[in-house]
Amino acid sequence: MGFFDSDIVQQEAKQLFxxxxxxxxxxxxxxxxxxxxxxxxxxxxEAMMDRYSIFMKRFELSEDFMAQMTMEQLKTQLNQFxxxxxxxxxxxxxTLQRMKSELSNNT
Length: 107
Fold this sequence. Notes:
Layout: H1 7-27, H2 35-61, H3 65-79, H4 85-105
Helix pairs in contact: 1-2, 2-3, 2-4
Pfam family, one: DUF1825
InterPro entries: DUF1825 (IPR014954)
Protein name: DUF1825 domain-containing protein
């Protein structure tokens, strides 16, 4: 069975994408959130990044050809912007840390 043939993988990918899209849409109103709303949003984004990181690690560790091709495509796309997948995650985490710091400084 291939990596993408797994119902679990398909469902997890679908759920991850839907949750991410919903958070991004919600994030458009971040500036209007109260302090607790901002904290909750940041926590949800951190949890999303953890889920995404684990999902990507599965691709990386899989011996399935399609999973490996997907990783190579991601690396190629990110390379066009001059970053690696790890740098992408590091930058996202740094952004979330900055957001947290701003909340701490405004309380």
